[in-house]
Amino acid sequence: MTATTATPIQARVRRGTALTRALGSALPVCALLLLLLAALAVTDAGFYEPDRFLAFVRRAAPLLLLAAGQYLVIVSGHFDLSVGAVVTTGVVAAAEIYHTYPGAHWLVVTVVLVAAGALVGLVNGLVTTGLGVPSFITTLGMMLILEGGVFYWTGGSPTGYLPDEFRAVGRQDAFGWLPWAVVVCAAVGAGVWWLMRSSWGRTLMATGDSERAAELSGVATGRVRTVAFVLSGAAAALAAVLVGGYSGVSAQAGSGMEFEAITAVVLGGVLLGGGRGSVLGAMAGAFALTALFTLLNLRGVSGALEPTVQGVIVIAAVALGAANFSRPRRRSPAPPAPPPAAPADRGPTQPSTGGPTP
Amino acid sequence: MLLMQDMTKSFLGIRVLHSVSLDLAPGEVHAVVGENGAGKSTLMKLLSGEHTPDGGRIEIDGTPVAFDHPAQAQAAGVGIIHQELALLPDRTVAENVFLGREPTRRGLVDRAAMARRTTELLAELHAEGIAPDTPVRELSVARQQTVEVAKALAADVRVLIMDEPTAALAEHEVATLFDLVRRLTERGLGILYVSHRMREIFALSQRVTVLKDGRLVTCLRTAETDVDAVVRAMVGRELSAYYPPRAAPGALGGPVLTVSGGGNDRLAGIELTVRAGEVLGVAGLQGSGRSALARAVFGADPFTRGRMTLAGREVRPRRPREAIRAGIALVGEDRKAEGLTLRQSVRDNTLLVTRAVGVGERAGATTVARLLERVRLAGGGGAGQEVRYLSGGNQQKVVIAKWLAARPRVLLFDEPTRGVDVGAKAAIHTLVRELAAEGLAVLLISSELPELIGMSDRVLVLADGRPAGELPAGPSEEEIMRLATSGADRAGAA
Amino acid sequence: MTAASPSPALPAAAAPAAARWRRGLSDPAVGIWLAALGVTLLGWAVVAVRGGEFLTQPNITGILQNCVALGLIALGQTMVILTGSLDLSVAYLASLGTLVAAETMAGSDGNMVTAVVAVLALCAGVGLANGLIVTRLKVNAFIATLGVALILRGWIEDNYTGPAGDVSRSFQRLGYDRIGPVPVSVFLLVGVALALWFVLRRTRLGHHMYATGGDEHAARLSGVRTERTVVIAHVLCALCVGIAALFLAARFGAGSPWAGTEARYDLESIAAVVLGGTLLAGGRGGVVGTLGGVTVLAVLDSVFNQLAVDPFFKNVLRGVVIIAAVAVYARGRRSAGRNR
Questions:
Q1: Which of A69, B210, B480, C195 could pair with B233 as two cysteines, CB 3.0-4.6 Å apart?
Q2: Which domain holds residue C84?
Q3: Checking DSSP bridges between strand B159-163 and strand B190-194, what pairing results, if any?
């Protein structure tokens, strides 16, 4: 049969090795991260002294965890706006548990928190996939519920304290030099990376890319996505343990972190709307965001102006990403078709909006 | 009237058009043909203002023009009807027809005038049955296309580009479209008609321009040439046989799939049997329940009545997952929206079903390589490539590979060669026949009658959601159409 | 050819009146107003059982008053959401608006016009920036407006630590005067709503907004200047926020850095819009539904207050209500999809 030669694939230019492809969408954020780390070194010669650098890493750790969890949800085509509230709730709940059971073992408390976080994620997932509520609304509602619940419970000022053994994960080092926070982040990062290479991860990615196609290929899209929400909730609860350990009890512990996490993930080259991006990129994005805050601090930018600079840089970074890597985005109606692309190949499945399809 | 000269265009440094020229006279239908990737759609998009040319010039009535937004092309009198219709399903017919050029009175949209003029335009197109205030989503595909044409007329276009206008139409609707095209040319419009289908080109056009690999091959007077010559120019070689031989009658095995008394809200009284090694063709008009039948067997819109057996065992799939587990696969009609996850690699698409359902082949590189070879994925693109960069034909092969990975016993094909170029089409036909010969039961739905006739061992004709009759191998188009239209007065499509 | 020639033989023309009825009833805007009515009745009943009275004049005034700020912002949000975009910067913009208004007025009636112009100009500028970042730089609206929100937040936190400026006496009447039980500010809300309704229904801009939100590619191919439409939607939204800021300033008598953020107008406005049946993805919905959504939230608030529900628990209930309402819509849309 010679007919096959009539339609050669001419897309050779787009090809690269597996490595560059894997890094592909994360490449800009890695460059940004290196740039920021270099700027930190220039600004403050002492920054890379082990103690200070490790403190920096410890501060970054919770956001890294949130980014890893948020990544799973975003790549499946949804949002999780409830993670900040989960962090707050987790910290406050831990304090309340110790208030009631002063002798509780830290591991038990941690496990209880993570399980509760997973439960929140389960509710998010079931409401979103089962009832067809856009996740933006589901998780927004969950955020209101959790925040209201925390205040209702504590009357606005959480009582109790966290014992040192519980705070060890957020503050102490393993083997005397490696922060436990790093160990946790590395483990979670590796876990998510491995998950994304598993069958479940591939079907999750496919679901985010095209729900209909995935459904018709036998993917249990609701179930797959619900698991992503569960993992995001669990990651947020784990982040709560780190936050509680690092900075103690506060009713504002996690406020605003959901947006930071989403920013980090998008900064990491993950497509809002789903179907593309790597967890390494997302975590690098979180790291870059923390590096940026630190740099601003060191540069003596008033703490009040910090958000302004953050806003500018986030917009700039995402805009540059949009310009350089010509990923089809919802605001680019006619992405430059790759060379041989059959004309009909214009991406018809651009995510329809800032929110995933309802 | 229209002249395009030496048009060139590159994407990311790759030249996809090499100084192509083309002209069009008032009242003329000028066909543009070529395999996928030949550059015909790019050429059309330069004319419709979706892309800006790198070089060349466009003249309309002797005046040079340059477009960088579709609005400018429309203002200059160039309209385009896309293969995927560009209509807003939630808006009314009138709002769609006048989108972008709403009539205004004292600065405000004149809704009454809009409705009135829409009614007039539809009447000119002999489509009085479409009410201007109906949301477009409530119309059949054929009627939606009529709305698109009305939209072009409302824009007062003089050059109309029709990109594969019959791709979504059933056979009898094509006739309606032909009438429409003739009526438009009588009004003095020039039409650029992009199509893969030779019959349409020879029925409609005065001239045919053939493109290959971004270059102009030739421009022929349709009356002075024939199908073979055009196909030869397109593919640069002869295509010997169009369809592979059918199965020998003795080669068929026992029944694999049977449905008796199958029905749901769109189907009733479905009776069918497909034997191992057999290709059962399913014919019918648009809306006759062809796709509904495939989706019912596949569990996407399951049967609510009747019995279905697979290899002698009763099955009752209520969702695709269950059907896949039972050994049923569906190569659906909408490849991009339903068959593929476009941003994922060829490898991940190939393994999607296996991974999701846990049946069939092991997920691994060797499996992928073997399957891709099996479906003869052309070219050296590699399995890591994202499928959206493949041509339509290769995309379809990936879909088929995906289903072969699940080792199905029944393969349902719904319009498997729609939007696929001639070469890939022949390859898919051969593959379908080979799979049948290996003992699979194949159900083939197509609105292209020659394909259906050439490929099927038997043809089941549906009308109005019910079986209208069954024909043995090699029926004539007339026989099929007679059955298909037997109960079609209520089939919903005008 | 006149309009009066529908051919009766063809099915699509059959019983258009019935089809129109069906469409009307499944319109979420109708549902949300019925829900508003239901919630009011329920509130009345529950409060009555407890021996209180719900529909008192101060209570009605309170409910209406509560509607105004959120209502204005939600109306603006409706414009951008319909167009397929989103605006998360409204809360900080509202705060900044009150500050600019109060500082420009500095207690003097003579500066009133200048202040109004200054606030609206500021808002138009921010809306323009939002729109241009989304369309020109092609940044996802979520990130773009979040970034702008952060920029505004930094500006506010850097320059203000507490209430600032002084709103002139006569301008404060916008916040407090009423005619019968109806606060004058409600007329402002109704006026803006009517204007926007008119824009959506009767202008080309409105049609193009629906088209852009429904399918941007299709709209562009039809010759709609989609980018321009998105930019204008963002400007309209920001102007609504400006008007809300003026109202809030009149209410507080001074500019407040927390005017917009404390009430979480960013997320609340989106919730109200979606509650009103507008599709978060754009292209479907409208002003009427949004007003209904705002009313439901305000009435609920008032009922909770009457019943002395813990304010934090109120948040919990509110979250549940929003999720439940949207779940009901999603259900309706699904079954409609099946019948198609």
A1: B210
A2: 31-47+55-339
A3: parallel
What is d(CA A203, CA A215) in angstroms, rounded to the nearest whole number? 10
> DSSP strand E in chain A: where?
173-174, 178-179
Burial of A210 (0-12, 13-18, 19+ CB in 10 A): buried
B47 contact C CB<8A: no
| Count of domains forming chain B | 2
Are B253 and B222 in a shared domain?
no
Tokens read off for C163? 């209430």
Which is more confidently placed, A322 or A233? A233
- Token digits for C166? 């002084």
Closest CA to C81 of C153, C24, C145: C145
Task: Report the alpha-carbon distance of residue A160 to residue A158 in Å, rounded.
Answer: 7
Query: What pLDDT was estimated at residue C220?
Result: 87
Q: Does CATH place domain A20-324 in 2.120.10?
A: no
DSSP state of B248: P
Is C6 a member of any domain? no
For residues B281 and B202, membership in a common domain is answered with no
CATH number for the domain including B29? 3.40.50.300
Both B303 and B443 in a single domain? yes
Q: Which alpha helices (H) appear in C253-310, and where do they start and end?
A: 265-275, 287-306
Q: Do A133 and C327 count as a contact with CB atoms less than 8 A apart?
A: yes
Number of folded domains that form chain C: 1
Chain C residues in contact with chain B using a Cβ-Cβ cutoff of 8 Å: 1, 3, 5-7, 9-13, 16, 19-20, 23, 202-204, 206-208, 210-211, 214-215, 217-225, 283-284, 340
Q: Does B107 touch chain C (CB under 8 A)?
A: yes
What integer pLDDT is reported at residue A144 of this predicted model?
87
DSSP state for residue B269 in the 8-state scheme = S
Residue B257 and residue B141 share a domain: no
Sole residue written with tokens 């004049």: C57
> Widest CA span of chain A, in angstroms?
78
pTM of the model: 0.81
Q: Chains contacting A with at least 3 CB pairs below 8 Å?
A: B, C
> Span A183-207, mean pLDDT?
94
What is the DSSP pairing of strand B14-24 with strand B190-194? Answer: unpaired
Within this chain, do residues B45 and B97 fall inside the same structural domain, yes or no?
yes
Instruction: Enumerate the domain spans of chain A.
Output: 20-324
Q: What is the extent of the structural domain holding B26?
A: 2-235
Provide the greatest CA pair distance for chain C.
72
**B373/B386 Cα distance (integer angstroms):** 18
The secondary structure of A84-152 as a DSSP string is HHHHHHHHHHHHHHHHH-TT--HHHHHHHHHHHHHHHHHHHHHHHHHH---HHHHHHHHHHHHHHHHHH
What would the pLDDT profile of C169-212 be if each residue is shown by its tens digit?
Answer: 889 988 888 887 788 999 999 999 999 999 998 999 999 999 99
| Cα Rg of chain A (Å, integer) | 21
Q: What is the DSSP letter of C83?
A: T
Candidate from A131, A150, A305 with C-beta closest to C154: A305
* Residue A246: per-residue pLDDT: 85
**Domain match, B104 and B217 both:** yes
Domain contains C334:
yes
- Give residue-wise pLDDT tens across range C201-214: 899 999 999 999 99
Residue B49, domain member (yes or no): yes
pLDDT tens per residue across span C296-338? 988 888 888 888 888 778 878 888 888 888 888 777 666 554 4
pLDDT at C26 (0 to 100): 62
Q: CATH number for the domain including C148?
A: 1.10.3470
> Which of the listed residues B205, B235, B265 is the one where a domain comes to its end?
B235
Which residue in A227, A240, A233, A235 sits closest to A121, CA to CA? A233
